[in-house]
Known about the structure:
By secondary structure, the chain is mainly α.
Amino acid sequence: MAEHADEVDRIVDAWEHERPDLDFAPLQVLSRVDRLSKHLDRARRGAFGKSDLQLWEFDVLSALRRAGSPYQLSPKALLTQTLVSSGTMTNRIDRLVERGLVERQTDPHDGRGILVRMTAQGRTRVDAAITRLVDAEAEMLRTLQPAEQTRLAALLRKLSLDFD
């Protein structure tokens, strides 16, 4: 076992003892990714909660913020960026309108179309949330040097391209 063994090392060692016929190398990587994702989820919920946002609210507001001024998108564009169903997006927009974080406007280029525009309050919340998120995620990566973070990002990008 490695000098700085973690729980995954202990699990894999036990499995290798019980099932020496299997190659447990995938667990060495993906079990750690799974465990880290749980820590990341907690960090994100904390960052968003401090900004009085739910994860799904952050997703919609951040899509609008990334669109740039005037921070508006069509519901279809929001669907594409957040990967939810049309009915779910309609419900989410309704709830964000109720909270004063977005507003619906008629599309000036298509009188039948609707645009979702972020309000000043929505921008304040999403900006606070992304600042907290970046700080929390930087803290999670503090034990890695910048070059290690760059290398890890490149490897994860390579792995994720097959799934995107």
